[in-house]
Amino acid sequence: MKRGLFITFEGIDGAGKSTHVAWSADFLRARGITLTLTREPGGTVLGEELRELLLATQAPVHAETEALLMFSARRQHLEEVIRPALARGGCVLCDRFTDASFAYQGGGRGVEKRKLAVLEDWVHPDLQPDLTVLFDVSAEVGQARVARIKSPDRFERENAEFFVRVRDAYLERMKESPHRFVRMDGTKPIPDVQAELAQKLTLILSKWKT
Ligand SMILES: Nc1ncnc2c1ncn2[C@@H]1O[C@H](COP(=O)(O)OP(=O)(O)OP(=O)(O)O)[C@@H](O)[C@H]1O
Ligand SMILES: [Mg+2]
């Protein structure tokens, strides 16, 4: 059987990932696609426990420890959720994946890219998303949106410079893999973003089915 379709959603906090993952899920389900909707860090029982730790701990966390925990959660996620769903031929929509490690732990925290690349190659040497949608907004826009809705987690409490570095690292990552990334202007009105997203999803579906 043909492998399923792996689509990831990326961007800084408040960029619109969760909003558009949910919308994309409806869009694909309406077209009869079998879907798995998941997120990182998280997606499994262990992964959600690690997420809670990563987002809420008051303890000091070295940047490389953070990177290792992210990849630990990811390893379990691939094992329990992502690979089985793809093997069944379904479509996996994932709110954040390895690009987020390059952006947050790499760009944001300064973990060497070389080390992250080793972890990437260890944990999923043979798998990359078929499509990665990068919602791009400035650090100010992202922070203002997050501040409106909830009390900030351990990442969201970082300052504007942190998110400038995260955003830049995402854009750099996109340059390195232009074939799988699409950048969306996350500051456009939601219906405009969705119209563009509909086009991209239709395109990847048509490629996948042929
Ligand atoms: N294009 C847009 N224009 C205006 N508001 C938007 C747009 N996209 C998302 N929002 C709003 O911004 C807020 C944050 O969006 P959302 O939760 O989808 O972001 P996120 O990328 O998932 O953030 P986080 O990383 O914190 O989970 C929500 O209130 C959402 O309605
Ligand atoms: Mg979200």
Detailed description of the structure:
The protein is an alpha/beta fold and 210 residues long. The longest helix is centred in the middle third of the chain and has 25 residues, at 63-87. The chain has a five-stranded parallel sheet with strand order 2-3-1-4-5, with helices on both faces. The chain is globular, with a radius of gyration of 16 Å. The protein has a single domain (5-209), classed as 3-Layer(aba) Sandwich (Rossmann fold). It has helices at residues 17-29, 45-56, 63-87, 98-108, 113-123, 139-149, 160-176, 190-209, and strands spanning 5-10, 35-39, 91-95, 131-136, 181-185. The chain is built from eight helices and five strands. Adenosine-5'-triphosphate binds at residues 11, 13-19, 145-146, 149, 186, 188-190, 193.
Computed CA radius of gyration, to the nearest angstrom: 16 Å
Summing up helix and strand content along with how strands pair, one would put the structural category as: alpha/beta
* Major beta-sheet overview: 5 strands, parallel
At the fold tier of CATH, the topology name is Rossmann fold
Total number of helical segments? 8
Average pLDDT, all residues: 97
Associated small molecules: adenosine-5'-triphosphate, magnesium ion
Write the H/E string, N to C: EHEHHEHHEHHEH
